[in-house]
Model the fold of this input.
Amino acid sequence: MKRHARRSPYRGIALALSLVTAAGAPCADVDPALPRYVAAVAPVPRDAAWLTADGAIRIVGYNDMHDMFDAFVARYTAAYPGTTFRLELTGTRAAPPALAAGTSALAPMGAEFTPDQLAGYRRAARAADPIEFRIAHASLDPRALSGPLAVFVHADNPLRSLTFAQLALVFTGKAARWRDLGIRGALAEQPIHRYALEPDTPLALSFYGRVLGATAPTHPDAQFHQSSDVIRHVGADPGGIGFGAAMRGTEQVHAVALSAEPGAPAAMPTEADIRAGRYPLDRWLLIYARPPLTPFAREFLRLVLSRDGQQLVAATPQRYLPLSAEEAAREREKLH
Done:
């Protein structure tokens, strides 16, 4: 008699999301407690290095924020007629050096500055470190380039949750067999096969920094790949475990619920858990600005962190998730 594997409720998160999105899912609700945007006076200096020859405000940064910034700019120019922009959103790597040189008014980023990027900024700017503003949660939509991190195991693996302490044991090699993670049965004595992202990528740096407190795994047997490759390998290996962008999951793997602290409730990479602040491997879209903030930077960020700005975030085709009123308030505090 042919045995049929039980379908996991955690399996294929990204596939389900893509089907919902294709059917025309509505954008995320925006917290009604967010303040509305009311324009103030925001003069643009005539001699700023980030102004183009024709007086446009130049912004260099992340390519997946183009739709979002088009919407921000339209809203800003409606409040300040005559203001013009030149958006050069070609990729995250271009943003830090342009901000350091003063040739970009802001630095839209899909990830935090890496240690190398921050070191380069310090050498070039010879000034205080840039101020980081979280402006949106990462997306669970497969069309987006920035997603929260997720830990994946093979679809038939009975593992359902892990703490960060257990993850650290896995990626340092201290957990060698599945029994070390509490698994019983046929899989218990099988070795754990680790699949990881290239250690110098923003996703990997985020994972290792939060889980290991380090910039790379210490176990020599970890195999390094891109997100889609990690998931493909885990999906083909019953003993595999790996991490990657949550929205890249397939039917061959399932995501594991995570808790940062022992005893804390484990959370999944779902919109509800992310927006409630429960999911510990969330990621964000960011805007960096040089201190002291210019009147333009302060006003533009005030728009982005308002209800009007967060409605524009929620309406993007990539379905980035807006901040809550509490989250936005923490970011607005940096404007003072």
